[in-house]
Structures are given as C-alpha cells and as structure tokens.
C-alpha cells in the first residue's frame, strides 16, 4: 500500500479534499492488507496501426471508433497500444464475501481495489512507455471506454483483439460488464513526438459532474 493508493481510495469513498477520519483510514489499511493477499494482477497489451477515418473517427487495428474525445487524444499518433488488465477473480470473491457479512468493509474494499488497479496500470504503462521509447515512440494518456464519448460498447472488440479471455481470463458478462469486476480495457496513442503533458483519468474525462472526480489545482 502506498500513500497515493490511500489518497485515491479515500477520494473514491467521496471525501474529496477533506481528510478522512482515523476509523476510515483503519478500514482502508485493513482492506489493502486483504487485497494484497487476494489480488493476482495481470495485463495483456498489443500495438496496432492507427488511422484517422475523418474528423472524430478512428480505425484502430480494424476496429472503427466514432469518438471526438478519443480522436482529439490520438491526434498526431500513428499507432495505438490496446490493453486489458485485471486484479483477478480472488478480489471478486473477497468483495462478494464481504457484501454478505460486512457491508462497510465491502464499500471500502471496492474503493481500495479501484485505487490498486489504477496504480498497477500506471506502473505497467511506464514499463510499456520505456519499451517503446527505445524505438523513438512515446505514449499519450490512456483512454478507456466510458471516458468522454468513447462508447463502452467497444469493450468486447478490445478483448477480442487481445485474446484477453484466453490470455488473462478477462471477459464480458451477458450484460456487457467486465469480469473479473476489477478490470479495465484502454487504448493509448503512440506518437513519434513526445508530449509535455500526460493527463489521464479524471483529467482526461469530460464528465465534470462525477462525484468521484479528482479535484484539480
């Protein structure tokens, strides 16, 4: 557990810039301790060619996407990293068990798992970035279905492009939700020009009324 993970978990719990009380911090610490035992993080990623198919339209490895927000994020890129990552089914089992016995702990564990997944993704993205920099290529911020107008309907296509069900056990339910629950798909633009700013997450999302939004400034 890192300070960043704790701060993110507290933010997901709705504290914003307010300090969490000691009781909450103890629950957070206990949740991270359990998650470290239950989680088995895995990731799969591939690089695909990227083409612009008109304003607000992209072709990523044959997947056609209509999204102005993603198009802006990818402007100037010629390739895209497509990735899928999960904390594993052990986290789902932990959260299901807690939801039956201790709802307060279940809520805190949900927030801590989200923070753990983000930190894992940040670390993996840094590794991918270092690998591509050896080829003179640089990453843009990662962008997931559900950000801005990038439709969540593309989840299944991304998983198929990665063979994610076979490679890391990440798939979709009949209701189009990722399973295991604490999982994510994303695309990352690849450019030959190094950008000075690598905003991600809340800063890259246009949903300004979200109660979980990270405060800026």
Key features of this structure:
disordered C terminus, 42% helix, single chain, six-stranded antiparallel β-sheet, 8 strands, NADH Oxidase, 2 domains, 217 residues, two-stranded antiparallel ribbon, alpha+beta, 7 helices
Rg over C-alpha atoms, rounded to the nearest angstrom: 18 Å
Helix content: 40-55%
Unreliable runs, pLDDT <50, ≥5 residues?
A: 208-217
**Major sheet characteristics:** 6 strands, antiparallel
For the biggest β-sheet, the strand order reads: 3-2-1-4-8-5
Number of strands: 8
Shape: globular
C-alpha end-to-end distance: 25 Å
- CATH class assignment of the largest domain: Alpha Beta
Strand content: 15-25%
**Named CATH architecture of the largest domain:** 3-Layer(aba) Sandwich
> How would you spell out the order of helices and strands?
HHEEEHEHHEHHEEE
* Average pLDDT taken over every residue: 90
CATH topology label of the largest domain = NADH Oxidase
Could you say which structural class the secondary elements and strand pairing correspond to?
alpha+beta
How many structural units, i.e. domains? 2
Alpha plus pi helix count: 7
